[in-house]
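User: For a reading group we're discussing how well predicted structures match intuition. Take Universal stress protein. Before you show the prediction, I'll give you the sequence so everyone sees exactly what went in.
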Amino acid sequence: MQLDSVLLAVGPGDADRRDDLAAAVLEVATPADATVTLAHVFTQEEYEEVIDRLEFDDDAEIEPDSVAERHATIRDIQSEFDEYGLEYDIRGAVGDHGDTIVSLAEEVDADRVVVGGRRRSPTGKAVFGSTAQEVLLSAPCPVTFVRSDDSF
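Assistant: Thanks. Here is the predicted 3D structure of Universal stress protein, as structure tokens, for the group to look at:
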């Protein structure tokens, strides 16, 4: 399968695995010369908190793409992609993490989605929802899951 488009979706818990996420994308996108969409998905509450923290001009109309571009995890991954000359664009989106990632994958016609998550116990999986699980089950293309080693 030819990869033309890869979506890397990051969220608030991905700072600790940003190097692993970037490496996973580079591994699949570089040989295929694929375009990468580097996306940060915020819940409405996260979005409002980030806007306050980043001190945007109160009079400016703030777009999710602009907020995502200023997010530390995005900037760190962006630096890695720049080192390898990888072609990418940055997207921001507000909504439920899982559903919004799936929607973004459909919008950019992704051939692969890369998401991160943490290892979970069987009980943790049953009790709490999982963004990665939602994406794995609903994405319109194959999904690469990059796990951190912290247990739940």
